[in-house]
Amino acid sequence: MEIQIRTAFEDVWGEIEHGLKYKPKGPAVDEDEEELQRSTITPHLNVLATLIDGMAQYSDQIKIQIDSPKERRVRSIRSRLAEKPLERLIGTDGIPVELMELVRDAVGHSRMCFDEAAQTDYPMARHVAAKRRASDDLATVASRVRQSTDVEEDKKREVLYVLDMERALLLFEYGNGLAGRSGNGALVEASRIYSRVESEFPNRGAVQYRLAKVLDALGDSKAAQYKLEQLVANMDKTDLHSSHWVRAAARRYLGVLYWEEGRQGGVANDGPEETGWPAESRELFGKAYAITKPILKMSVEGAADPNETQGISESEKAVNNLLYYAVELLMGEAEEHDIAEYHYVKGDLRVYLTSMEASTSPAAEDFRHLDTLRRAYKLLRDRQKARSVTEALIEALKQKGILDRPGGGREEEILHAALATIAWCEEED
Hints:
Layout: H1 5-21, H2 31-81, H3 97-117, H4 124-147, H5 153-176, H6 180-200, H7 205-217, H8 221-233, H9 245-262, H10 279-292, H11 314-329, H12 348-357, H13 367-379, H14 383-399, H15 410-425
Helix pairs in contact: 1-2, 2-3, 3-4, 3-5, 4-5, 5-6, 5-7, 6-7, 7-8, 8-9, 9-10, 9-11, 10-11, 11-12, 11-13, 13-14, 14-15
């Protein structure tokens, strides 16, 4: 029940004021008597008017206090979303206000989880629990939308698209953070959602890109490769505008998958420096280089997807990867002209190095960025720069706790290669 306090006060005063200004018709009243009556009543009416005005203003403050948290929440949600997940719903009227609020709140809760994920001091269990709750909220709201008879079918499909995409992304995120059956179950559910959404919206590139990432996380890198190859080949047939970040990210991710396949076989981080890679591996590194290089000529937006690295442009990520692939291709006796078939131009290696050295973005302090520089300087036999960047790399790994944490994995592999580089720097030619 809503009590209209201010309106009631104003109505009372309006009636009193009307009675004073517009006297009712009736028997004539002596003017002296009327003036006496007015002079007696007016002070009381002034007090009453002040009281009513004060109470009306106070009721406004009550309303502000009631509405403020809701308004702050909506502003916060819209700010966090930057209209990206819900931009397809802009201009689609006819959706009940209450239902739309539920949709915005559920997606806003989801985005807050991604913001919290950036807080590395939070325990993993907290991140997973929050994302699981947000995923359940999205599923509940999606069920409400499906059951609604007040929304046109085309608008309902768009709302469900937003909710399904957010839920699948949450499942992917916390599925990646969990080991064993629980994590795998979340990833499988994410793949099912993306597959269903893809069948309903076959031309939406973001769905195909995210599905490829889930397939890779499930260990099916070949299926992920195929999905990305199809997306890259048919990019202009999708709904992605010319500057959409997925246009670059899909190429970059496909390049990484080619590179990972080329390195299969357990070779150490620096690879076979003297002999170079086998022909099959070199072919895959070449494909990685060729698919990634066009990104440098793209003008794309920064990633809006919370799953993507923020603050680092797609061009910077591409430069890092291209330098890495070039180093792989130039190992052994290979010369720059030997890899021209992969769109490598003589001098590319130095161009990438110069670009990375001048970088002031967050990537400059990332251990993967530093490891790429280390490998390039070692390939160029520049011991002084190799030592400087390797020391920075070891410090970055130390900050991540790699020096104190036993076990395998990519980070420890990089650490061993870094220590070997320090030893190499101390040798004499």
